[in-house]
Amino acid sequence: MTERNPFRIMTVEHYPILQVASALSAMRVSHDIDPETLKKAVKFIRKFADRYHHEKEEKVVFDKVRGKRIDISPIEAMEREHEMTRSRVREAIESLEKGDIGNAIVSLREWANFIPDHIDKENHSLFPGLDNVFTGEEKNELISDFMRVDERLGTIDEMKRLADEIFVEILSKTGNAIVEARAVPKEDRDDFVFRLADLMPENATLTVMYDEKSEELEKRLEGFEIEEMKRKGVYAFRIKKGEDQQKT
Ligand SMILES: [Fe+2]
Ligand SMILES: [Fe+2]
Fold it and tell me: Which CATH class is domain 175-247?
């Protein structure tokens, strides 16, 4: 899929969402996270993960799929999952309004634990399937509709900037992120993990779920400490950025 492919655009929009989920999924109530950071995370999810991205899925792509004579149960399943994510975010907002930081953290962590699997299904199953169902001309129309959403709701660069801010703020408190890299298609997976390793604060760690050992990625991570982890059926490793990481 090229950059001008609508499903490629949707796949790339998943990366900042996964990045924020990586940070939120390692939060504990005891981490003393600033409520303003949690509000920023809620803002990101509502403005970008939900409106900006889901509007393209639901109001552009899925609506057009409904006009075709194909089985729509996969998109109905995705819409139900969107509703589930919305209720977690509503709970987080209610808790923040009551000043209940602990419950806000629990709701956001539930959102974060759920979203990689949803994204994985879209990236690896739904989108490649839909890519075969739309003609080239229809795909260009989807892109034009996406551009109209962008005009109203924001840009991918704004989305990435806010994701970076949230990621760094949360990791400076938790010191860890849990990265479900398997949800990222193989061709982008190394770049995705490397970018987060590069961005994380000193002394933080990334716990990365990967399919298999990537020598290419390990080469790029020279200077970081890498520790392989035993996880049932999953190749996982921990990346640490030490204070002396710059000396090499
Ligand atoms: Fe979705
Ligand atoms: Fe999506």
Answer: alpha beta
